[in-house]
Design goal:
The protein is an alpha/beta fold and about 350 residues long. It contains 15 helices and 9 strands. Helix 4 runs parallel beside helix 7, helix 8 packs across helix 10 and helix 9 packs across helix 10. The protein binds coproporphyrinogen III.
Length: about 350
């Protein structure tokens, strides 16, 4: 395997000095690029995920077209519940639908901790092809959902702003919830380990809904499982934990041994740094909606963010996924401002 030509992301994760701040954008693969939308009209979502050539084309697009410093695998967090035996559909404009959600202990009998090489081999094939296609241009990020976020979809059966049914399940049937969370954790560890073996240089755990929990419940239903995943992987690759809205747990998340912590725009960089300590890299935290502003305003806000984080142990990113309606030149302005910035 050829050495990486652009190693900024991994240097920042290791806490090394970088010549400038690296940048990538959550959900950069898919969603907003016109060339992706063309592919979306031709192939179904799971066809795009399961065909290594298509997944590769989509993964590399933002590197070619926007100039980000890392590629993130094109796939979805919901391939894990699918591999565990639960039906997952993605409905155009509606989002995910799991028609037979988990509601009781009895329902756990319908799912398994699968052999990931059997059920998710298409992901590993895609990673190998992406790695070859990138040819060392930028590092490749693998990912999975955090167990709590996966439970949210497995129980609620669809997207939600509150995931109240999923939370109710945790509070009403905690033993069943913990059994399910452990099954997801075991699957996720095997899955991410294999992603790393297949070429992922680092992996990110997306806990999109962990911040819906109180600090006490976040520890109980989310963080203790994230901790297991980080512990199992951190000696083979750097791990980034992004728990949207869970800024209250930055100190505990830093103590997991993660190399990077994603933060959203709800916390000032300086306070995040105070809470997380000096031994972890912070990633974020531009408000994705701010990319809808006129370009001069984007440039101003991006520079303010860079100044607030400072030059060390920062990966510039959004505080959540890029919005589908962001014009490409606005995303490019964000990336170019970061690349040109001198601390
Ligand atoms: C909660 C969550 C999901 N998926 C994901 C999360 C965590 C991050 C976050 O909070 O945004 C993560 C994800 N989903 C997808 C990626 C691939 C890489 C990337 O986009 O950079 C990643 C990293 C592709 C996708 N996953 C999905 C699409 C849209 C389907 C399409 O384009 O046809 C894409 C490109 C479908 C999906 N998948 C999910 C939802 C809610 C939806 C529908 C709405 C949407 O977010 O677009 C679940």
């Amino acid at each position: 395997m050829s050495a990486l030509k652009n190693n900024l992301l991994l240097q920042a994760l290791r806490g090394e000095k970088t010549s400038r701040t690296p940048v990538w954008m959550m959900r950069q693969a898919g969603r907003f690029l016109p060339d992706y939308i063309k592919l979306r009209d031709k192939y179904s979502f799971f066809e795009r995920c399961q065909t290594p050539e298509l997944a590769t084309e989509i993964t590399v697009m933002p590197v070619d077209q926007v100039g980000v410093d890392a590629a993130i695998l094109f796939s979805d967090i919901l391939v894990v519940p699918q591999a565990m035996g639960l039906e997952v559909q993605l409905i155009e404009k509606l989002g995910p639908l799991l028609p037979h959600p988990i509601k009781t202990a009895e329902d756990l009998k319908r799912i398994q901790v699968p052999d990931v090489n059997d059920r998710l081999s298409y992901v590993f094939e895609a990673l190998q092809l992406i790695k070859k296609t990138l040819n060392g241009r930028v590092p490749l990020i693998g990912f999975a959902g955090a167990p709590f976020t996966i439970l949210c979809y497995m129980v609620q059966g669809k997207g939600s702003k509150t995931f109240d049914e999923a939370k109710g399940f945790c509070f009403q049937q905690p033993a069943v919830a913990h059994a399910l969370l452990q099954m997801i954790t075991d699957t996720t560890i095997a899955y991410l380990r294999e992603q790393i073996r297949s070429g992922a240089d680092t992996v990110q755990i997306f806990d999109s809904w962990g911040g819906l929990l109180s600090p006490h419940d976040f520890e109980n239903f989310s963080l203790q499982y994230i901790r297991q995943i980080v512990a199992a992987l951190k000696d083979i690759a750097p791990v980034i934990v992004f728990a949207k809205g869970a800024w209250f747990a930055l100190e505990e998340m830093a103590a997991t041994g993660a190399s990077g912590l994603g933060i959203d725009w709800g916390i000032k960089p300086q306070l995040a740094r105070q809470m997380a300590g000096s031994q972890v890299t912070l990633q974020g935290n531009f408000d994705p909606a701010n990319l809808l502003a006129p370009i001069p305003e984007i440039e101003k806000a991006t520079k303010r963010m860079l100044q607030e984080f400072g030059p060390h142990r920062h990966i510039a990113n959004l505080g959540h996924g890029i919005l589908p309606n962001v014009p490409v030149d606005h995303a490019r302005a964000f990336v170019e401002t970061i690349k040109a910035y001198q601390h």
